[in-house]
Amino acid sequence: MSTTPDSARHTTPDTGTTPDTGTTPDAGTAPDAGTAPDAGTAPAEAPVAKRLSTLDRFLPVWILAAMALGLLAGRTIPGLGPALNTIAVDGISLPIALGLLIMMYPVLAKVRYDRVRTVTGDRRLLISSLVLNWIIGPALMFALAWLLLPDLPEYRTGLIIVGLARCIAMVIIWNDLACGDREAAAVLVAINSIFQVIAFAGLGWFYLSVLPGWLGLPQTDLDVSAWQIAKSVLIFLGIPLVAGYLNRRFGEKAKGRNWYEEKLVPRIGPFALYGLLFTIVILFALQGDAITSQPLDVARIALPLLAYFAIMWFGSLALAKAVGLGYERSATLAFTAAGNNFELAIAVAIATFGVTSGQALAGVVGPLIEVPVLVALVYVPLAARRRWKNRVTPTAPTREP
User: Fold this and answer.
1) Mean pLDDT value across the chain
2) Contact yes or no for 392/15 (Cβ under 8 A)
3) 285 pLDDT exceeds 80?
4) Is the entire prediction scored with pTM above 0.85?
């Protein structure tokens, strides 16, 4: 999260070339003002909670409160959901779009874009991400949906669509909270976005029609256009990415990197949390009645989702450790593989099957489970950071700032 103090973050780039001791300065710049040296240099590392700001420390409380507020509002305020749904342009909810843009802009403004080339050269990270996101993730969701919802075809189809929509938004927040590699996260979500535009419709056809036919199972058609997917990517990733890049480029050019990171970033950082909470309130207000009026169905849908997030996240973390990635990129790989693009999944389900369909409800339940689960998982890698300390993976020589 934008509000996480940089003293909680290892400052050595995760290129696999330098021991992760936390003693190397960050890209030739001084450590952030007002922060202590990296915890790895101190005799005893402070507890995880102590290294987080007050906002981040109580993030689960804020998120649960936002979810409860949204559900309560959607359930008790007559006509709220339909009224919010009318505030849309070409099928894109303007309140949700606004919240996501506010949420992602501060985090993407913190990315050091001059380091992106160190990520694109890391084949272990890129190949692992592509395999997890576009082979294992959709296949796992397909298997869980059929195993756990064999008698509920609408919900099953909705979950398969969720599994095809790889995350390009909230994963940026979870990664930043866990002190993952910001540059790696930006690159991986950009790659996922490209693959999403190219492969989403084809994978939907394969997992809903072709593969079930091969296995002798009922088949479903999915009618979705490449433009519908591209539009979602351009709005929810393209706009904040361009804004963040231009903000850093012109900010550093005008006043230098130290001023940018020590003065400007702390000012805009908290808006990421505000945007996240606003998005959650709106999202759950839109679907509050559907969620609260069918609790047993929600519970059935939640079971495969819980299994999916746990398997993908811990499996991704294990794979990252196996291929020799350092802490920051391991955390990034885990969150980018486990997260899903709920906005796209809901939009596709509504456009194809209708707003009151079981497929749409399954899409809505996705963030209901994903948000608290991934927030909780943020604390797991933070607590386990010591396991990655002092690991050296010999590759190319360390690059100079």
Assistant:
1) 80
2) no
3) yes
4) no
- Report residue 298 as tokens: 């929600």
d(CA 206, CA 161): 11
Query: Which pLDDT score, from 0 to 100, does residue 355 have?
Result: 66
Q: CB within 8 A of 311, min separation 6: which ones?
A: 140
* Distance in angstroms (rounded) separating the CA atoms of residues 269 and 265: 6
Q: How far apart are CA 322 and CA 170, in angstroms?
A: 26
Pairwise CA distance, residues 203 & 194, whole Å: 14
- Residues 336-348 as b/e (b if ≥16 CB within 10 A, e otherwise) read bbbbbbbbbbbbb
* Close Cβ partners of 315 (under 8 Å, ≥ 6 residues apart): 132, 136
5 membership: H or E segment, kind and range = none
Burial of 121 (0-12, 13-18, 19+ CB in 10 A): middle
Contact 118, 13 (CB under 8 A): yes
How distant is the alpha carbon of residue 179 from its chain centre? 13
Place of tokens 């190397």: 24
3-state SS, residue 140: helix
Q: How confident is the model at residue 85 (pLDDT cuts 50, 70, 90)?
A: confident
Q: What is the DSSP letter of 47?
A: P
Q: Say how far apart CA 142 and CA 208 lie, in whole Å.
A: 9
Assign residue 16 a region: left if phi > 0, alpha if psi is -120 to 50, beta otherwise? left
Q: Which residue has the tokens 């059935």?
A: 300
Instruction: Read off the amino acid at residue 320.
Output: A
Which stretch of DSSP H or E encloses residue 341?
none
Q: Which domains does the chain have, with CATH numbers?
A: 52-383 (1.20.1530.20)
User: Distance between CA atoms of 92 and 239, rounded to whole angstroms?
Assistant: 14
Please check whether residue 306 is in contact with residue 92, taking contact to mean a CB–CB distance below 8 angstroms.
no
Nearest-angstrom CA–CA distance, 2 and 107: 6
Residue tagged 């692992």 (tokens): 128
